[in-house]
Amino acid sequence: MTTNLAAQINGVLAALILLTAFGLLAQRRIYGMLHLFALQGLFLSVSTAIVGYTAGLHHLYVSAVLTLILKVFVLPYILYALVHKLHIRKEVEDLVNIPTTMLIGIALVIFSYHLTAPVRELSTLITKSTLAVALSTVMLGFLVMITRKKAVTQIIGFLALENGLFFAATSATYGMPLVVELGVALDILIAAFIFGLFFFQIRTTFDSLDLKEMEKLKEED
Amino acid sequence: MTMPSPMALAVYSVVILLIMAISALVFKSRQGFLVNAVFAFSSLACVMALTAGFQAVSNGAVETLILPIGLPDLPFYLRIDALSGFFIAIIGLLGLFVSIYSLGYVRGFVGQRSITSLAVFYPLFMAGMILVVISDDAYFFMIAWELMAVSSFFLVCFEDESGANRRAAFIYLLIAHIGAVMILLSFGLMAGFASGFENFKGYTFSAMRGAHISPGWASAAFLLAFFGFAAKAGVVPLHVWLPEAHPAAPSNVSALMSGVMLKTALYGIIRLTFDILTVSQWWWGGIVLVLGLISAVTGILYAIMQVDLKRALAYSSVENVGIILISIGLSMIFTAHKMHELASLALIAGLYHSLNHAMFKGLLFMGAGAILHATHERNMERMGGLIHKLPWTATLFLIGCLSISAMPPFNGFVSEWLTFQAFLLSPALPNPILKLLFPLGAALLALTAALSARCFVKVYSVTFLGRWRGEHPCAAREVNWPMKAGMCLCAASCLLLGVFPTAVIGWADMAPLILIGAKISVSAKTFGWLWLTPVSSVRASYSAPVIFIGITAVVAAAYAVFHSRRSSKTALTRAPVWGCGFEKLTNRMQYNSTSFAMPLRRIFGFLMMIKESVTPQDANAHGAFQRKFVYRLMINDRVWYLLYKPFSKAAFWCARKAGFMQHGRIQIYLLYSFITLIVLLVFA
User: Are the Cβ atoms of B665 and A216 closer than 8 angstroms?
Assistant: First the structure.
């Protein structure tokens, strides 16, 4: 596989990741969001493996496998089990309507491309063009968290944001050191467990997973 | 079998203490056993620490150890020299006495409340203090410092059902942490200069010693560290936690906090200024001296005003820390002027007073604990006549009072006398302004000494003499033997430290020798062990043994005279106390704590915030025909209103103003961070 081809494939994968990020913004069903998230993880994992192969960095394989296990199988499964257990049937509710959210998302992507232009000029890595996509994935993840009402969707948004960070690390510097990546993977896993606990706690306290209920926690003047 | 080295002994004692803290958690279901085990083993650990400290000072060798634990590439450095040895000896000595005392004291809690937290945090607290004085790098020092602060926080809020105790513990934790941040910043400065702001290698004290710090930055580091340690030592105006926390803590803990923990802060000041930074500017010593004087005078004045026994003792700790700081400040000024002999005299005075204060304040707090144990009362206005109910405690408490009031032949006299000698030798200084100002300082120190005697006359007479003032008849019983034993040992060391000052100075002289490079034991012992002549015999000399023998002889003669003539007309007869031949007197008509303090309240009232009111109980009756008047007196610390209230008010004001940003909606909060991110990305 030539470098050029690798860059091409990587570009396609980046486009798919961006697409799934937009998918998360547009999707109204929770199960649909989970599938999209798993897909995003899969693209991320493949992309990491390809970068690792072309750059000859073997520790990236470990990252790829970790990503595959954690983000494609384990985390979606945990969230799936949670949603099932908590009987969350309702569609995703959003604060801002979806077309507006998509427009904001597009603006964010353009902003990211503008922002990473100087890096693209300087970088010599094959992944240089995907940095903008990584940054937009981070921002879109953030946007998911801001525009959704339910706690579960916030978590998906957060995990998507983390995907974007991971992708940014691979595309900007061929990944972080293995120790750091292992640590981050562990953190994400533990975070998922803690989120699970919190869901139960929030539901038993407020009888709902709607974050609006948490406004009651505010101190009265 | 050879004796293990001081370092090994110190490390073993810390290990024993840590094991005790962990096993206290395991055996928490057997409370009675827990008391015996924890305090017996703590006593053992203290004996080891005491031996380690004693040896380290007497052989004067420097011993180091590198523990390969901690963060990667940042191992813990330990070091024992004469200075740390001296403070380990203080910790071990008072720790031993207090641990023995606790065997009896803590048993009083069993059955009333769970003592598990006391049994866990007491050994941790001791271990923290030992580690503070043997650590040799900033990182380990801060860990030990925090261990000490946090475990003592939990000890202060041991009786946490009372809101006042929780508040006291919170104030303590807050001020301790403000202090810790300042110390950390100071270490950061020195470590930065030591490594040239390149890496983390400057975190050891040995690297800091070799650092070349410009005078300005050295002063900044000194000021940060000094105020950081001063917050822990209870120097005015950072003392407000002290009179709150010491009464709240159980008495054995107050004894340790006041007797030893404050000393670790003084250790920090000495270590930093004499050893690591090396004194270069004389005004550093000036600041220490002035704050010491202010602490000494205000501390004792507030102590006189208190009606709570433990609060009075706490304020008197402020005073004693002030006296020690006076000596340290003098020593710094002398060192900056290259007058090494005088500097070491002043330093020895400070160190000696640290040791003495640990002994007598430990004894007094243990005595206060014994009174609390027997009467469940802390307010002196409701005590009196306890000398009949608690003869042992009364005698031992009297020894503590005599020592703290600097009465020969007890130990308080020797160290305060040495401080005076250092003051009186200041005309040798080349600086004319200092020459003029120093007599003023000496006068203030003399005032402090006199006031402190007055304070303890009041404490002792109101508590032990006269008649019982409480509403119910006094049901106090003498305390159990471990408490008596702890106090007896403490009282004995008060006497021994007072009678054999030359031996103590000869032993402790190693500390100024390694810090300043001069020692005073040569001149101090020119006339043999019997006479203490700190500078020369022409100037001043004091023979504690002779005075001790003299006093004993006079007392014995007086006793013999009065008790041998029991049958004759001058024999002693026992009559009701304060009887005065008048029958309608009640116990409430006695001279009490408030009335005793009244003259000084009139003279020095401007230093305090006093609210005094007399209201007739029956508003309709004429003023001259009232059956009862209600007298109210509130004495508050002025510092609290001048320094702390504005801060807390400002903090609450800012919090209220910032409160409008708080909506309780998570999306809005996320939006805040999102906008921050975008703004940073655009402008960075």
Answer: no
Q: pLDDT per residue over B141-187, tens digit each? A: 999 999 999 999 999 988 888 888 999 999 999 999 999 999 999 99
User: Best interface-test mutation with A: which of B653, B670, B674 has the largest number of A CBs within 10 A?
Assistant: B670
ipTM: 0.82
Residue of chain A whose alpha carbon sits nearest to that of B668:
A146
Which of A115, A142, A215 has its CB closest to that of B665?
A: A215
The set of residues, in sequence order, having a beta carbon less than 8 Å from that of B325 and lying 6+ positions away, is B233, B235, B266, B269, B288, B289, B291, B292, B295, B350
The answer to whether residues B532 and B543 touch, using CB atoms and an 8 Å cutoff, is yes
B665 touches chain A (CB under 8 A): yes
By CA distance, what is B677's nearest residue in A?
Answer: A139
Q: Are B120 and B24 in contact (CB under 8 A)?
A: yes
Q: Which residues contact A141 (CB under 8 A, 6 or more apart)?
A: A21, A24, A157, A158, A159, A160, A161, A162, A163, A164
* Res. B505: pLDDT tops 60: yes
Taking Cα atoms as reference points, which of B302, B298, B323, B324 lies closest to residue B313?
Answer: B302
Q: Give the residue on B whose Cα is nearest the Cα of A153.
A: B667
CA proximity to B505, closest of B471, B477, B542:
B542
Nearest-by-Cβ selection for B663 from A145, A147, A218: A218
What's the confidence (pLDDT) of residue B282? 86
Name the residue facing B662 among A145, A154, A218 (closest C-beta).
Answer: A218
* Chain A residues near residue B667 by CB distance under 8 angstroms: 95, 145-149, 211
Q: Is B541 helix (H, G, I), strand (E, B) or coil?
A: coil
Helix residue ranges, H only, chain A: 3-26, 30-55, 59-67, 75-85, 98-122, 131-147, 151-173, 178-206
Contact state of B678 with A219 under an 8 Å Cβ cutoff = no
Please name the residue of chain B whose CA is at the shortest distance from the CA of residue A149: B667
pLDDT in tens, B255-281: 999 999 999 999 999 999 998 888 778
| DSSP-derived 3-state class of residue B290 | helix
Distance, CA of B176 to CA of B230 (rounded, Å): 10
Residue A146 is nearest to which of B663, B670, B681, comparing CB atoms? Answer: B670
> For B20, left (φ over 0), alpha (ψ -120 to 50), or beta?
alpha
User: What are the domain boundaries of chain B?
Assistant: 637-684
